[in-house]
Specification:
Order of helices and strands: HHEHEH
Strand order of the largest sheet: 1-2
Distance between the termini: 38 Å
Number of strands: 2
Helix content: 25-40%
Shape: globular
Structural class: mainly alpha
Amino acid sequence: MKKNPPKQQCGRFDRVTDEQIRRWRVLPPEVKQRVGALKAALSCKVGFHAHNNLGLAIGNTLAAIEAGVDLVDGSLRAMGAGGGNAPTETVVTVLKRL
């Protein structure tokens, strides 16, 4: 029987990034897979911060929530750098309907 490797401690490690995530070229299924992998590998809280460059900030935030993320970021009226962020008021409205 194969044992699962122990979860890694986060310590001072507080940010995970790769080129695709950094440039916000991810779709909801990819977000769900990546967040799920982080949750399985780490013992600390995992957060998600979506940009709206592809118009997917809400979809990606919901995918992260479905994958068990602990914290999500948003900004009022989606005011953020570049394409903006997930609008907090929309995220709250959607979560109330789930």
